[in-house]
Design goal:
207 residues; mainly alpha; 68% helix
Length: 207
């Protein structure tokens, strides 16, 4: 659905009703659009003029049945989507390394953090399939890294970037909201002075 909306340069009004109009029910437009948009942009790069997408996966049936009924996009579209998710997964590994560098200081030891994440079969699976979990993880990791940078250097641009990234994570899936709550509880106590604390709280809530 997202691929079709991106490829057809749909209006904002069409985005708000497209999922329900296709009768997707509980599997439709449950989450915010940023993750879907990223996947849609990845698939749109592989679009061919002759492509026609009629995608409506039936969850109660097997993958083979859905494929036999023509309910899968063309192979090159699926590969483009998976390639986009894989690239985001690689960026996640890079951010985990940067976070580890900030926390432990030793680059040689910090390499164990992304290696450990890559060894996790769940992470590898989600980095190879077209879900919005990895895009959400990317923004959550980016927010965490920028927040740590702010706590270490007390430069407001790091906090602004952290909250923008946290907002993008929430715009992928709502369950990233605790990240913003945690920042609102922790960050103000890491800066000195009542005015700076109030400014931090106001900035977090505003973003």
């Amino acid at each position: 659905v997202t691929y079709t909306l991106v490829a057809e340069r749909a209006s904002i009004a069409e985005w708000s009703t497209a999922f329900d109009a296709r009768g997707l029910g509980a599997w439709g437009n449950m989450n915010p659009p940023v993750g879907k948009l990223l996947i849609g942009l990845a698939t749109a790069t592989a679009k061919r003029p002759t492509d026609t997408i009629a995608y409506q996966w039936i969850w109660g049936q097997t993958a083979e049945w859905n494929a036999s009924q023509g309910r899968l996009p063309p192979r090159h579209i699926l590969l483009a989507a998976r390639r986009g998710i894989a690239i985001i997964g690689v960026l996640c590994l890079g951010l985990v390394y940067l976070i580890a560098v900030e926390l432990v200081g030793a680059r040689a030891i910090a390499w164990w953090a992304p290696l450990s994440l890559f060894a996790n079969p769940v992470f590898r699976a989600h980095s190879a399939m077209v879900y919005t979990n990895v895009p959400q993880l990317l923004f959550m990791l980016l927010s965490s890294w920028l927040c740590i940078r702010f706590l270490r250097h007390h430069r407001w641009r790091w906090l602004i970037g952290a909250m923008v990234a946290a907002g993008l994570a929430c715009a992928v899936k709502y369950n990233a909201v605790p990240l913003v709550v945690a920042a609102a509880l922790v960050v103000p106590w890491a800066v000195s002075g009542i005015k700076r604390r109030l400014m931090a709280v106001a900035l977090i809530l505003a973003l």
